[in-house]
């Protein structure tokens, strides 16, 4: 596959919407889908709560069965260009299990779906390698899946999956107990993870760069290798929410810190955020992207957030690589002098 190339030099003021992904419109479409799905099973196995959180919940008596589904997105295009597919399976697992963790749910099993333009044994072999590694990191079983050849629909390939988990109903974490004064703990990301790649690819293309070019901040890796770093699987948080009183969590994916709106209507003051990683500086400088757009699109170095009381935060930080990055306030969201909402 040919690499994205274009005229050399940064294109100032790029936005995610200009790269083809309008998050505001997408949220409107999602809301319409939820409103349109009106039928609900009754009796045993009926749904719990409203749609729109990180995972769907099914009533199983004393327990809730949780289901979430997600894919890797246009990061797969870079994998195709690099002919390096051995990490995207980790991304697929991560995007699903991380969405279960935030509700206090332990993932159990996974099924994958691979759709491909034409058979490619090397591609499939590498994807499976990544899926297996992701399953190991998350301690889950891959119990099934589907591979389809769809030459009239798919260009390249697509990878998605569905994960199920279980939780005692009285231990589900939704964010309803979050209150002003609580502490936010941030956990480092492993780079861009698996969101915002439509904008990332446009930045690389418009700057006239190639994925095989050295990454400016580390000449030991190429731009493509840096961008293909797999999404971190935050499996360590399972032990934390089983031991401590965790009030709310967020997996920072597409939409950046806007993901926090899923758990509470209160606000956030990030007075001591984790360092911005070099890959985000590279994307911002090459694309001329403003600060607010960066924080509303990417994780910016904080891939997972946890909200606890002040008393609980200290012990959690000591046993993890997390750091206290902010606190819960009445309204709004500020970080590095930027008002996000």
UniProtKB/TrEMBL annotation:
<feature type="domain" description="PurM-like N-terminal">
    <location>
        <begin position="53"/>
        <end position="167"/>
    </location>
</feature>
<dbReference type="InterPro" id="IPR036921">
    <property type="entry name" value="PurM-like_N_sf"/>
</dbReference>
<dbReference type="InterPro" id="IPR036676">
    <property type="entry name" value="PurM-like_C_sf"/>
</dbReference>
<keyword id="KW-0067">ATP-binding</keyword>
<dbReference type="InterPro" id="IPR010918">
    <property type="entry name" value="PurM-like_C_dom"/>
</dbReference>
<dbReference type="Pfam" id="PF02769">
    <property type="entry name" value="AIRS_C"/>
</dbReference>
<dbReference type="Pfam" id="PF00586">
    <property type="entry name" value="AIRS"/>
</dbReference>
<keyword id="KW-0547">Nucleotide-binding</keyword>
<dbReference type="InterPro" id="IPR016188">
    <property type="entry name" value="PurM-like_N"/>
</dbReference>
<feature type="domain" description="PurM-like C-terminal">
    <location>
        <begin position="179"/>
        <end position="313"/>
    </location>
</feature>
<dbReference type="GO" id="GO:0004637">
    <property type="term" value="F:phosphoribosylamine-glycine ligase activity"/>
</dbReference>
<dbReference type="GO" id="GO:0005829">
    <property type="term" value="C:cytosol"/>
</dbReference>
<dbReference type="GO" id="GO:0004641">
    <property type="term" value="F:phosphoribosylformylglycinamidine cyclo-ligase activity"/>
</dbReference>
<keyword id="KW-0436">Ligase</keyword>
<dbReference type="GO" id="GO:0006189">
    <property type="term" value="P:'de novo' IMP biosynthetic process"/>
</dbReference>
<dbReference type="GO" id="GO:0005524">
    <property type="term" value="F:ATP binding"/>
</dbReference>
<dbReference type="GO" id="GO:0046084">
    <property type="term" value="P:adenine biosynthetic process"/>
</dbReference>
<comment type="pathway">
    <text>Purine metabolism; IMP biosynthesis via de novo pathway; 5-amino-1-(5-phospho-D-ribosyl)imidazole from N(2)-formyl-N(1)-(5-phospho-D-ribosyl)glycinamide: step 2/2.</text>
</comment>
<protein>
    <recommendedName>
        <fullName>Phosphoribosylformylglycinamidine cyclo-ligase</fullName>
        <ecNumber>6.3.3.1</ecNumber>
    </recommendedName>
</protein>
<comment type="similarity">
    <text>Belongs to the AIR synthase family.</text>
</comment>
<keyword id="KW-0658">Purine biosynthesis</keyword>
<keyword id="KW-0963">Cytoplasm</keyword>
<dbReference type="InterPro" id="IPR004733">
    <property type="entry name" value="PurM_cligase"/>
</dbReference>
